[in-house]
Design a protein that fits this description.
- This protein is of the alpha/beta class.
- It is about 30% helix and about 20% strand.
- The strands form 9 sheets. Strands 12-20-19-18-15-17 form a 6-stranded mixed beta sheet.
- Helix 4 runs antiparallel to helix 12 and helix 14 packs parallel to helix 15.
- The longest helix has about 30 residues.
- The protein is globular, with a radius of gyration of 29 Å.
- Bound molecules: beta-D-glucopyranose.
Length: about 800
C-alpha cells in the first residue's frame, strides 16, 4: 500500500443541530497549501489548528495526556505534569495494569477513560504507552506494561479498543525503541532489525492490527541514527505498508528536528505549536519542489479525518452536558473500577508459613516452634499495626506528563481502619520525600516509635516504596534499591517481630534480595492509582484473592539485568547488546537465579494443571497470523478452599532452529476464575507467527519445520507441563554464494553430498575438515583444496541455487 492509498476515517462524521461535522474530501479540496500546512502542527500545547473562513469550518480539537487518566490542563500548559489539571479518575498506571494479565479488565478501564475523555471535550487521549521494559532503571517504566511484547500488545489493544468504543481516540506511544529517559530526546537506540521485529515492535504491531488506534505517537529518540520522527522505514514502510495503520502519526511533544523530512517520512501532525515556523517550512519546500504537495495532502487528510471522526461523540457529549448539567461520567463508578483494577494488579510475591511458638512441656523455657499458617490473608485487623509513612501518604502514580489530578484519594491506613471499624496503631517510621528528610534525631525518633508500635502488635504491616523523587518521566533511576532508611526501619521492626508483611509501592522492580528474608509475606502493590489504598486492604484482608502476576522479572541484582553495561549508553548512543535476550529470555538463557520470575504471583488458593497437550492442525508459515497451526490444551483445577483466578501461561521453544532463539517465549495466556474444586479446560491456538522468527537475511518471518516445545505453567519458572510437536514449516535455506562456507555447502540439501565427496576426494585430509569448515568456498577453490576450481565452483553454485 502506498502512502496515497491509505485508509478510512476513524469514524464517520455525523450531522445535525449543533453538529460541527464536515466532509473531509470536500474541505481538503477547498484548502490552500498554506491552510493544509497549518493543519500539520498544533495551535498551542494541546489543540490542533482550526481553519475558519468563508465556506470552510474545521474546528481545532484537544488532545491530551495521558495513559491512566485524563490530564486536561485548565491553564499554564506544559508536558511535564507541572501545571494543574481538571479532576479525573487516576486509574492505576500501566505497571499495575500490566500485572493484571487481564484484557477484559483493561477494556473496561479503557471504556471509562474514553467516557472521561469525551466528557471533557477531548478528542484523543495520549496513551497507552507500551514500550518494553529493557532495564528496571527506566524512570518511566511505571507507564509501560511489560518486558514482554505479547502482554504489551494484548493489553494495549484491549485498552485502545475500550477508549475508542466511546467515539474518541488514543495515541499509541512511544514509537519506537524508547526504553530509557536518559538523553531521551537525542539518543540513538542502536538495535538490530531482528531484535526490533521480535521484541520492540511486535507489541505496537499487535495493537495496530487489532485495534487501529486513531493515532500513533513517534518517540523522541533516534533508531540506528535516524530520528523516529523522520524515519520513513518506521513510520511508513513498517507502520502503514506492512501493518496497515490507518490513522495519523503525531510527534511526541517537541520530537521534530526537521519538519520537511518528517512530513516526507510520514509524520502527519507535529505537536505542540511551532508558532507557524514549521508550517512555513512545509509551504516553502513544496514551492521549491523538494516536497510533493500530494504528501502534504495525505497528511492534512489524516488530520481532518481525526478531527471529523471525533466530532460526533464530542458534540453529543456537549449536548448531553448542556441538557443535564451533569459531569458526563460517574465518578463513584470509576473510582470503584480503579479499585478493582488496582487489586487485580497487586502481586502476592511471597506468603510463607510463620513458625509459631508452642509449649512442649510445662515451664517457660520449654518452647518449641511449629509450622504455622501464612500471614495472609489477615483474619481481621485485630492485633495488627501499620508502620510506614506510605500507608498514610500513598505513592499512587508517577511524575511527569501522565500525572493526574485525582477525583479522590484512598490511603491504606484509613481503608484498614474503616474496614476494621476501629483504630489501628500506626507509626510513620520514615518520611517519604525528599527521602533524606529523615536524618539525625528526627529519623531516630521516627524509627524508635515504629519499633515500639511493632513490639506491641501481633502482626505488623510495613509499607515501603520509592519516593516520587526516585522515579519519574525525564530521568532514570540510579539504582534499584529502596531508600536506606526504609530498609533500616524494616530491620529494626524485624528485631522485635517475626510476623511482618511488607507492602511495596513502586513503579518498577526494586531489589528485594537483601531484606526479604525478614518478612514472611511480601505484597507488590506497584502504583495503585487513586483507589490503590483501599485495593491493597482488599487484598490483605482477603476480600480480593490476589491474581496479579509479574509482567517484569525482579532480578536478584541490577548487575544481573541484560542491559547492564549497555544502559543508558554514552555519547548519544545506547547499544542494545543483549539483542533478543530481554527480561526473562536472558535469565532463562543463562539459567540465572532471579528474586521473582516473570509471570510469578501467588494466590490464597492453589491450582493444579493436568493434561497439557498440543496438536498440530496444519503446516505453519510466518506470514500466517490468523489461522491456528497448533492447538494447546490444559485443564486447570482450583485445589484450595477459596475462589481464585489463575493466569495460565503458554511458552514456545524452538530448539532446532538454525538461528539462536530464546529458550522459551510467552505466546499466549488466559486468566481463569475458579470456585474451590472447579476445573476448566483451556484451549490456546498458536498461529504460524507465534512459532516464527524474523530471518535477518531473508528479512521476513519464517517458521522452520521441525520440533517445537510448548510449555504451560504458572510462571516462566513454574512450568507445569510440556508437549513436543513436529511442525511442517519452511525448509529455510540460504542461497549458496562464493563466500558461503564449506560447512554450509556440505549441509546443502542439493549439492551437499557432492561437495562432501569433492572435499573428501580432494587434497583435504580427514582431520583438516574441522579447520576448513568455516573457509569460504572461493578461498578453498583458489587454494585447490576442495577438488574444485573457480569454474567448478560457479557450476556448483548454479546447480545449488537453480
Ligand atoms: C511525553 C509524552 C506526552 C507528551 C505530552 C512528552 O514529554 O513523552 O508521553 O504525551 O509529552 O504531554
Amino acid at each position: 500500500m502506498t502512502i496515497e492509498e491509505t485508509a478510512e476515517a476513524p469514524a464517520a462524521a455525523g450531522s445535525g443541530a449543533g453538529s460541527r461535522a464536515f466532509d473531509v474530501e470536500h474541505v481538503l479540496a477547498a484548502l490552500t497549501l498554506e491552510e493544509k500546512a497549518s493543519l500539520l502542527s498544533g495551535l498551542d500545547f494541546w489543540t490542533t489548528q482550526p481553519v475558519a473562513r468563508d465556506g470552510v469550518a474545521v474546528p481545532g480539537v484537544m488532545v491530551t495526556d495521558g495513559p491512566h487518566g485524563l490530564r486536561k490542563q485548565a491553564e499554564s500548559p506544559d508536558h511535564l505534569g507541572l501545571g494543574t489539571s481538571v479532576p479525573a479518575t487516576c486509574f492505576p498506571p500501566a505497571a499495575t495494569l500490566g500485572s493484571t494479565w487481564d484484557p477484559a479488565l483493561l477494556r473496561r478501564v479503557g471504556e471509562a477513560l474514553g467516557r472521561e475523555t469525551r466528557a471533557n471535550d477531548v478528542a484523543v487521549l495520549l496513551g497507552p504507552g507500551i514500550n518494553i521494559k529493557r532495564s528496571p532503571l527506566n524512570g518511566r517504566n511505571f507507564e509501560y506494561l511489560s518486558e514482554d511484547p505479547v502482554i504489551s500488545g494484548e493489553l494495549g489493544a484491549a485498552l485502545v479498543a475500550g477508549v475508542q468504543s466511546q467515539g474518541v481516540g488514543t495515541s499509541l506511544k512511544h514509537f519506537a525503541a524508547n526504553n530509557q529517559e536518559a538523553d531521551r530526546m537525542r539518543v540513538s537506540a542502536d538495535v538490530d532489525e531482528r531484535t526490533l521485529r521480535e521484541i520492540y515492535l511486535p507489541g505496537f504491531e499487535r495493537v495496530v492490527k487489532r485495534a487501529q488506534p486513531w493515532t500513533v505517537m513517534c518517540s523522541y529518540n533516534r533508531i540506528n541514527d535516524v530520528y523516529a520522527s523522520q524515519n520513513h522505514w518506521l513510520l511508513t514502510e513498517v507502520l502503514r505498508d506492512e501493518w496497515g495503520f490507518e490513522g495519523l502519526v503525531v510527534s511526541d511533544w517537541g520530537a521534530v528536528r526537521d519538519r520537511v523530512a518528517a512530513v516526507a517520512a510520514g509524520l502527519d501532525l507535529e505537536m505542540p505549536a511551532s508558532g507557524g515556523r514549521t508550517d512555513a517550512e512545509v509551504v516553502a519546500a513544496v514551492r521549491a519542489g523538494t516536497l510533493d504537495e500530494a504528501v502534504v495532502d495525505v497528511a492534512a487528510r489524516r488530520v481532518l479525518r481525526m478531527v471529523a471522526g471525533s466530532l460526533p461523540a464530542l458534540d453529543a457529549a456537549a449536548a448531553a452536558r448542556a441538557g443535564s448539567g451533569a459531569e458526563g461520567f460517574d465518578v463513584d463508578a470509576h473510582h470503584a473500577l480503579a479499585r478493582e483494577a488496582a487489586a487485580a494488579g497487586t502481586v502476592l510475591l511471597k506468603n510463607e508459613p510463620v513458625a509459631e511458638p508452642v509449649e512442649t512441656s510445662p515451664g517457660l523455657d520449654n518452647l518449641d516452634r511449629r509450622e504455622g499458617a501464612p500471614l495472609l490473608p489477615l483474619a481481621s485487623a485485630e492485633g495488627v499495626a501499620v508502620v510506614g509513612e506510605l500507608a498514610r501518604t500513598p505513592r499512587y502514580q508517577g511524575a511527569g506528563s501522565s500525572q493526574v489530578n485525582p477525583t479522590r484519594l484512598d490511603d491504606a491506613l484509613s481503608a484498614l481502619r474503616a474496614a476494621a471499624g476501629t483504630d489501628v496503631p500506626f507509626a510513620a517510621g520514615y518520611t517519604v520525600d525528599g527521602a533524606d528528610a529523615g536524618s539525625g534525631t528526627d529519623a531516630a525518633a521516627l524509627l524508635a516509635d515504629a519499633v515500639e508500635v511493632a513490639r506491641a502488635a501481633e502482626t505488623v504491616l510495613v509499607f515501603l516504596g520509592l519516593p516520587a523523587s526516585y522515579e519519574s518521566e525525564g530521568f532514570d533511576r540510579a539504582h534499584m534499591d529502596l531508600p536506606a532508611e526504609q530498609v533500616a526501619l524494616l530491620e529494626a521492626v524485624a528485631s522485635v517481630s517475626p510476623r511482618i508483611v511488607v507492602v511495596l509501592a513502586n513503579g518498577s522492580a526494586v531489589s528485594v534480595a537483601s531484606w526479604q528474608h525478614l518478612a514472611p509475606a511480601v505484597v507488590e502493590g506497584w502504583l495503585g492509582g487513586q483507589a490503590g489504598g483501599s485495593a491493597i486492604i482488599d487484598v490483605l484482608l482477603g476480600a480480593v484473592n490476589p491474581a496479579g502476576r509479574l509482567a517484569e522479572t525482579i532480578p536478584l541484582r541490577l548487575q544481573d539485568n541484560p542491559s547492564y553495561g549497555n544502559f543508558p549508553g554514552e555519547l548519544g548512543h545506547v547499544r542494545y547488546g543483549e539483542g533478543l535476550l530481554v527480561g526473562y529470555r536472558w535469565y532463562d538463557a543463562r539459567q540465572a537465579d532471579v528474586a521473582y520470575p516473570f509471570g510469578h504471583g501467588l494466590s490464597y488458593t492453589t491450582f493444579a494443571y493436568d493434561g497439557v497437550a498440543a496438536e498440530v492442525l496444519r503446516p505453519a508459515s510466518g506470514a500466517d497470523e490468523d489461522t491456528a497451526a497448533v492447538r494447546v490444551r490444559v485443564t486447570v483445577t482450583n485445589t484450595g478452599d477459596r475462589r481464585g483466578a489463575e493466569v495460565v501461561q503458554v511458552y514456545v521453544g524452538d530448539p532446532e532452529a538454525q538461528v539462536q532463539r530464546p529458550e522459551r517465549e510467552l505466546k499466549a495466556f488466559g486468566k481463569v476464575d475458579l470456585a474451590p474444586g472447579e476445573s476448566r479446560e483451556l484451549t490456546f491456538d498458536l498461529t504460524g507467527r507465534d512459532l516464527a522468527y524474523w530471518h535477518p537475511v531473508l528479512r521476513r518471518w519464517v517458521v522452520e519445520g521441525g520440533e517445537f516445545v510448548i510449555s504451560v505453567g504458572a510462571s516462566s519458572r513454574d512450568l507445569r507441563g510440556a508437549a513436543g510437536v513436529v511442525v511442517d514449516g519452511e525448509d529455510v535455506r540460504m542461497p549458496l554464494e562464493p563466500l558461503s562456507t564449506v560447512a554450509e555447502a556440505m549441509a546443502h540439501p542439493v549439492v551437499g553430498p557432492r561437495v562432501q565427496a569433492l572435499v573428501h576426494g580432494g587434497a583435504v585430509a580427514e582431520d583438516m575438515l574441522g579447520m576448513i569448515g568455516d573457509m569460504p568456498l572461493t578461498v578453498v577453490a583458489d587454494f585447490g583444496m576442495g577438488g574444485f576450481d573457480r569454474d567448478g565452483l560457479a557450476a556448483l553454485l548454479a546447480e545449488a541455487n537453480g
